[in-house]
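Now read these lines:
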Amino acid sequence: MTAAALGERRAAVEAALDEALPPETVWPATLNRAMRYSVFAGGKRIRPLLALGACEAVGGEWRRALPFACALELVHTFSLVHDDLPAMDDDDLRRGRPTSHKVFGEAIAILAGDALLARAFQVLLPAGKAATHAEIAALLSEAASGAGLIGGQVEDMESEGRDVAATALERIHSAKTGALIHAAVRGGGLVAGASAGALERLDRFGRAIGVAFQVVDDVLDATEDAATLGKTAGKDKAAKKATYVRVHGLEAARARATALRDEALDAIAPFAAQGLVLETLARMIVDRRA
């Protein structure tokens, strides 16, 4: 039943994203093609699904969170397009396909990322009640800002080739990956009008599973091949990036991911059956191989 529930929600996200983006035939056509190329590159839609699951966990109708879920995925895709650029991670593959700048050129890829970020806030506005619009927009903008994923990316790049303290590593992971995942979970709760107590539990879940996601990414980069990952394998080690595997070792990283998953599940235990989608996603995030 959970697999069917996730499938239904994922299909709804895909349809909503299709509606949220301009058709390829609309001016400027090249930009719209580039935006759609990256958004519909076969992503798992983890962040949107977390938002829908959080809304449902606190008693909301999950479809109400679809605009917010789409906004999350557009922000996430913007970050991937820019991360792959030669000036950043310089990657040729994303989800098994050539990256945006390899297909459309660097200039269009940069502009497509910019346009996805701007579009996110256009599609976000219908989410929730009018009184919560500003709070949800502020949550998403902070997660994407220098205090969130962009700031984490900056410190991640500045840490390449350097010895990094465990506290700095936590900060990088919490910002670069964790901030948007936490925003997905808290935002889903806000759409549903969650109580302060429920939001506190969602916060705990979101922060724990957000860091777990990046820890697992670190492990996969060190252990899986490019065919499995859908992107170049071993780049973290080659670039001497600040990762859990580099700082703590492979087994400690795996143990940390498991502990974070258990912490996240403990936070949402009182939601019982209403939190089943969140529970399933938490297990998927830690157990995945790509």
Observations:
- The chain has one domain: 2-287.
- The two ends are 23 Å apart (CA to CA).
- The chain is about 70% helix and 0% strand.
- The longest strand covers residues 93-94.
